[in-house]
Each structure stands twice: as structure tokens, then as C-alpha cells.
Amino acid sequence: MLPEQPVGVFDSGVGGLTIAREIVRQLPAETILYYGDTAHVPYGSKRVDELIRYADAIVAYLVEQGVKAIVDACNTTSAVALNYLQSKYSVPIIGVIEPGVRDALAVTRNGRIGVLATEATIASGLHARLLQSLEPRLKVYPQACPRLVPLVEAGIVDGPEALQAVTEYVEPLVKEGIDTLLLGCTHYPFLAPVIQEVAGEGVTLVDPAASTVRQLGDLLKGHGGLRHVHGSRAHTFLVSGSAGGFRRVAQKLLGWPELMATRRVKLLD
Ligand code: DGL
Q1: Taken in order 215, 217, 220, 222, is the CA torsion positive or negative?
Q2: Measured between alpha carbons, how far is 37 from 54 in angstroms, rounded to an integer?
Q3: pLDDT tens column, 169-201
Q4: Fewer CB within 10 Å: N-end or C-end of the chain?
């Protein structure tokens, strides 16, 4: 691993940008090679074998491009494909589920944790399993949220439509008395203000981005691959769908003034 190699980050679309922006915050010298599989978004409604096939093709491509480490910045593929990817590739790959689980456990006081995620992630049961393996007395309330990823992909993160969808998913969890709400999909932090409004002040939202990137920093340091020299911030964003559409929504969500090298690279049909 060499410090000047880029870090690979992938997701079904714009969700992984919540991880990318955290990398920029915590590890500003790093260069990011991002892949958003927007031709196949949403991943949440896909079968496990399809998800493995997509994630495998993306990781193979990122490795070919010379990344030194990869963040699977998608809970859905972290839930169903991460073990497979880690055993197949020698480049280190970290996921977003475990950091989120550890953060949620550290935050809860009353032991009632809600988990918002995609249908496929909830169906995997991984968040609940990991939480309860660390603390068997926890009560976990999983909630699949199929309407949220399409909203965020369209750049809709506030207003009546977002509020209505978030209310449908979050209100039942609040009624169960949760004090912690794990955002188990990397798209959801973009909706955090609306989610917080519906959940109320007594509920702490957990975004796994900060601890995922701390784990990445430790990993790079451990391999002598942490970059200290600031180059030009030449991050590259690749997508399987429309590059223009991605750039427009990404710029709106991140508020980065001048973005970004975005290109279309189609890997699979
Ligand atoms: N950001 C992905 C996740 O964390 C969203 C998956 C989707 O496209 O449905 O699960």
C-alpha cells in the first residue's frame, strides 16, 4: 500500500457521499475514487445474488484502478456481500454496518434502538443480530424504508414529500420508546434534519460515517498508507448512469462549490 494511491468508495448512488465527505473532513490529504452504481439504484429492492454480482464488479474495477483500500459505503452490500468481497480480494475492504452498530450501542441509555435501512438490509437481519450479540438485553426495532433512497437520489431531502415518508417510518419507532435511531443506509444522513424533527429531541440519531472513517484512518496508518501531503483535491466520481444527473444532485446535497470530475463507466447490465 502506498500513501499516494486513492481510496475507493462505492455505493448504489449518492449515499456513499456521506462517507466521502467525512473522508474529506477527517483525512483531507486522501484522494477518493468514488463509484456510484446509479444504473442499478435502488439496491434495497434487489436480490442477494444480484447485489453480490454488482459489488463484485465494482470492487474488481476499483482494484484495477489501483486503490489502496475500499470503503463499501452501502449498508445493503455491506450486509450481504462484504464477507465474500473480503475473502476474494487482498485489498482491505471495510463496511459501514459494524461501525454503526458500535456507535448505537455506545449512545443508547434505555436499550431501545430503532434501525432505519433498506428492505434488503432489514431482511438480512444483520444490524439486529450484531446489536444483540453485543448486548442481549437490547430491544431492536428494524424498519425498512423503501421510499427514502429514491427521494434522496432525486435530491429531495426536505419539504412535504420527505416529511410524509419519514413520518410513516419513524413515528411507529418513536411510539416504541426508542432513544437511539441508527441510520442504517448511507443515503439517510442527508435526511437527518427531517428525521430528527419527526423523532423529536429525545432520540439520538446515529450516522456511522465518522467512526467508519476513523476505522479507515487507523487501517491506512497500520499499513503505512496514510497520505500526509495535500495534493490538489482531485477526487473522481464514476457512475453507471447519467453523469450530469449525479453531479447536479451531489452538488446540491454536499454543497461543495465546484464539483467534480464525474464520468460514466458502465460495468454490468
Ligand atoms: N446507500 C445504500 C445503503 O446504505 C442504499 C441502497 C439502495 O440503493 O437502496 O444501503
Answers
A1: negative
A2: 8
A3: 999 999 999 999 999 999 999 999 999 999 999
A4: C
Last residue of a domain, one of 208, 228, 245: 208
Q: Which atom of ligand 1 is nearest to the CA of 187?
A: 1
Q: In what order do the strands lie in the sheet with 7-11?
A: 93-94, 69-72, 7-11, 32-36, 236-239, 261-264
> What distance in Å separates the CA atoms of residue 43 and residue 31, rounded to the nearest whole number?
26
Which domain does 215 fall in, by range? Answer: 7-95+210-264
User: Residue 106 maps to which CATH number?
Assistant: 3.40.50.1860
Residues 218, 109 contacting (CB under 8 angstroms)? no
Element (H, E) at 170: helix 160-175
Amino acid at 120: A
User: Are 221 and 202 members of one domain?
Assistant: no
> Is residue 12 within 6 Å of ligand 1 at its C-beta?
yes
Active site residue 145: no
Whole-number Å distance, alpha carbon 12 to ligand 1 midpoint, is 6
Find the 20 Cα to ligand 1 centroid distance in Å.
Answer: 15
